[in-house]
Amino acid sequence: MKKKNFVAQGDMNAAASQTKRVRNARKASQAKVHSPYIALRCLAAHFGLFVQGLSFAIAETPDGEDGIDLTPAVLIANSPDYIDLAHGTMQDKQLNAFGGIRTFVPACVKYDNGEFVFKAHRLNAEARISEDKLKDYFGDTVVAK
Description:
3-stranded antiparallel beta sheet; 37% strand
């Protein structure tokens, strides 16, 4: 004969409150507005590359006046090229610029009021590019929501 398991009143209240928490969390996640992001798959299709080898970075280019220009870029793994998002072209990593060597720093990308902000952990500076400029260079599908 099977033993009947009785559920205590406290267990029923805990189960009910857990159900409410899950339901409220679902509602909150559905109500969130997701910010736009740069679709690497679109850039990969535009240039005929594999999406697995792409990563965001900031290109540090000497400007010839004792300063450095910071531009948003997408690095291509195992390639001598990179995608310059500020100009919408693929360029050579190894080219010397004004007597200096271009270097790349991995970056995190965040969306801020119509602009994508590239921020590197080891730099105190940031590189920005507008959403409209990206759409002009690569089409409307490069910015996804």
